[in-house]
Amino acid sequence: MNDPLVLGIESSCDETAVALVRGDRTILAQRIASQNEAHERFGGVVPELAARAHADRLAPMVETVLAEAGIALADVDAIAGTAGPGLIGGVMVGLVTAKALAFAASKPLIAVNHLEGHALSPRLADAGLQFPYLLLLVSGGHCQLLGVEGVGRYRRLATTIDDAVGEAFDKSAKVLGLGFPGGPALERAARNGSPRFSLPRPLVGSDEPHFSFAGLKSAVLRAHAAIPEPTVQDIADLAASFQQAACDCLVDRTARAIAAFPEATALVVAGGVAANQAIRGSLAELAASHGLPFVAPPMWLCTDNGAMIAWAGLERLRAGDIDDLHAPARPRWPLDPAAEAVRGAGVKA
Ligand code: KG4
Ligand code: ZN
């Protein structure tokens, strides 16, 4: 099975996504439906609404992707579905759909860790990326530095002791009235601003390896509250100040991890926040200053999608690591089970 064909299903947060990917890295067809309109008025993802939307959309989306690719379910080599971590209702919808398809077509099931989908996605985009690499995984629920040693072999070097960086982007955007989803909105606002507000950079320079963003987020709240009638320019300046501080934190902690994982052949960034241009630029500079290649997947592959789940499934299939129909849905599922719990972390999926 040199170039297997894998159907990937993603439903762990607010994107319903399906993709059909072949081992030669061809994406035969894919669909990604975001649920922004359903969650917008609540200013955040409402788990039950998300699960219902996945249940409504997923099966027809699978049908569409197969039809567009001109592939019958019988011709697919495996079905990969996100089995966690994430919002449990959505994870169950996706995993049960994957199980039903695997059972109906007598195909292997691969229960994919969503974080492994992000972690391996750069190898879908870049055939030259080899193990081991240092990965900064930055999303709405996670902020980690991982030594990626191979498929299924992840060494957690650092994690957040409070909020994930994407969460800090989203909450700061909410405070600044920039709408939902917050990360991209804050980045847009920051483009017109200058970082004139002095905001904290938690744990920068610290001996411990981890991240912290709660203090930065609260500082945005306080700085905003201190301006009696904020102008559009004030908001842009606050956004730019937040983004600069977040970049500085990520760069400082990643520099520390480069020293802690000298076997890395590249510095890689993945996850939704990796779509941020300022962060990509700062990390590219950091990698260059250490003589390391820098790899960032295309923007669409950073935020949640089905292709990264299909690809992780493909890598696992090639490694002979498949699951059976008992595979559980796991709201929490660390990539490195041996990593010690840190203060405050692991609260969210
Ligand atoms: O990986 P992802 O799509 O979902 C999770 O697994 O969490 O990441 C979503 C996160 C959200 O917090 C979103 O605001 C953030 O990624 N994000 C961004 C940008 N695009 C998405 N944050 C900063 N700048 C962006 N351009
Ligand atoms: Zn994600």
The CATH superfamily of the largest domain is identified as: ATPase, nucleotide binding domain
Percent helix range: 40-55%
Enumerate the strands of the largest sheet in spatial order, edge to edge or round the barrel. 3-2-1-4-5
Using only CA atoms, what is the Rg?
20 Å
Report, as a whole number of angstroms, the end-to-end distance.
34 Å
| Main sheet characteristics | 5 strands, mixed
Brief sketch in words of this structure:
The chain has 349 residues and is of the alpha/beta class.
Descriptive overview:
The protein folds into 2 domains: 5-121 and 301-348, ATPase, nucleotide binding domain (Nucleotidyltransferase, domain 5, 2-Layer Sandwich); 132-296, Nucleotidyltransferase, domain 5. 42% of the residues lie in helices and 17% in strands. The strands form 2 sheets. A 5-stranded mixed beta sheet has the order 3-2-1-4-5, sandwiched between helices. Strands 8-7-6-9-10 form a 5-stranded mixed beta sheet, sandwiched between helices. It contains 11 helices and 10 strands. Helix 7 (214-225) packs antiparallel against helix 8. The protein has 349 residues and is an alpha/beta fold. The chain has helices at residues 36-39, 47-69, 88-105, 114-125, 165-175, 182-190, 214-225, 232-260, 277-289, 299-302, 306-318; strands at residues 5-10, 15-22, 27-34, 78-84, 109-113, 133-138, 143-150, 153-158, 267-270, 294-295. The site of zinc ion has 6 residues, from helix 4. 5'-O-[(R)-(carboxyoxy)(hydroxy)phosphoryl]adenosine binds next to helix 5 and helix 6.
SSE blueprint and pairings:
Layout: E1 5-10, E2 15-22, E3 27-34, H1 36-39, H2 47-69, E4 78-84, H3 88-105, E5 109-113, H4 114-125, E6 133-138, E7 143-150, E8 153-158, H5 165-175, H6 182-190, H7 214-225, H8 232-260, E9 267-270, H9 277-289, E10 294-295, H10 299-302, H11 306-318
Parallel strand pairs: 1-4, 4-5, 6-9, 9-10
Antiparallel strand pairs: 1-2, 2-3, 6-7, 7-8
The chain binds 5'-O-[(R)-(carboxyoxy)(hydroxy)phosphoryl]adenosine (KG4) and zinc ion.
Zinc ion is lined by residues 114, 118, 139, 271-272, 304.
